[in-house]
Amino acid sequence: MSKKKQDLLEHAEKLFYQNGFHAIGLKRIVHDAGVALMTLYNHFDSKEDLILEVLKNREKRYFSHLNSMAECRNTEGTVSVALLFAEAHIAWLSSSGTNGCMFLRAKEEYALENEEIVNQVIAHKKSFISFLVKQGFSHAHSIQLAMLFEGATSLSEILDVNDIAIQFRSLIKDSFRE
Amino acid sequence: MSKKKQDLLEHAEKLFYQNGFHAIGLKRIVHDAGVALMTLYNHFDSKEDLILEVLKNREKRYFSHLNSMAECRNTEGTVSVALLFAEAHIAWLSSSGTNGCMFLRAKEEYALENEEIVNQVIAHKKSFISFLVKQGFSHAHSIQLAMLFEGATSLSEILDVNDIAIQFRSLIKDSFRE
DNA sequence: ATTTATATAGAACGATCATTATATATTTAT
DNA sequence: ATAAATATATAATGATCGTTCTATATAAAT
Question: Which stretch is the leader sequence (chains A, B) (predicted)?
Fold first, then answer.
């Protein structure tokens, strides 16, 4: 991929996450990326196309992050594995910032405006649940884990991530004990 | 309160929730409320002031909703009480729509733009946790409950609320059993 | 070296944004 | 009935929005 395109994706992701999608203009994105406005339109059809690609990029990175954790999985047992992914998610939250889930925010902002964005976010969340099922969790347990993950993400906007991590682990131990 | 003002608050809340705060213009709000633009500025200092009042209004309604549930609390015991509030929250989600938590969305959109909005949302979430503590839950359990509530709200954007309710109750039973 | 592709700055487009001004009307209170 | 308060429609403000056009410059490929 072109370096300019990569710069655009990176700065767009950061700005969208910190300010929201409607709140940030393309002028600001190209300025921060150090790129001309026409270069953006050379790589992306529209702002909403840029948003779609930003989300695809972020999804790929998030799953890579989880998978890299799953690899060093020397332990079996539902609790341990769930705790493993919980730590991975907490680590993601710590480095990602405290502005909620970017996917859900995109869906919320474009709920009535862009069906493609909405569908892509729904697909992402469903494939996250599928990912958990593939890891050996039951469907019910996967939904429960997903709920806990979303809850941790939201609450990290209000409370310290370390305090959340403690209760996060505690909830998992109680719900997944064998 | 003036009826015009109430109409404005109601339509603003609905439009903000469905479209986002930056995405919706004041023209659209006054049009839907059947009111002149200057009437809005007669009742509110600015768009962001309107947002603050919408959130205050919603917070009042949400806590009223929870309290009306707490009143018909003929049962004691941590699990039963937690389940009671869980049902109240599920009922709120069912009637509120599936676009996430309006408070967090406001905080996210104005994170770098309006400190007052951010602080009001943080205060709201903290007073929700305080509410739980007042209901007799430990601090740790209150944070856990808050996390579950937020998770249910987020996940209701993706899955059917009834399916969520099942796992929601299951998580509470596991974590709050005496 | 010449062609082809990509990036540049800057202006223009039409639209919409929040906000203010103006001047007329309607409602409410005394 | 008279005065005060509130609501109305409309337009203007200056700014910003996403997108397109133009014309020049840089870079890559043949």
Answer: none
Class of domain A47-176: mainly alpha
Query: Is the CB of residue A113 less than 8 Å from the CB of residue B23?
Result: yes
* Class of the CATH-defined domain B1-44: mainly alpha
Of the candidates B112, B158, B166, which has its C-beta nearest A125's C-beta? B158
Q: How far is the CA of B32 from the C1' of C19 (A)?
A: 20
pLDDT in tens, B78-126: 668 899 999 999 999 999 999 999 999 999 999 999 999 999 999 999 9
- CB-based contacts of A174: which residues, under 8 Å, 6+ apart? B174, B175
Nearest CA in chain B to A166: B140
The domain spans of chain A are 1-44, 47-176
pTM of the complete model? 0.96
Task: Give per-10-residue mean pLDDT for chain B (178 aa).
Answer: 95 98 98 97 98 98 91 71 94 96 98 98 98 96 98 98 98 90
Return the half-sphere exposure (C-beta side, CA atoms, 13 A cut-off) of residue A163.
Answer: 14
Closest residue (CA) to C1' of nucleotide D6 is B39
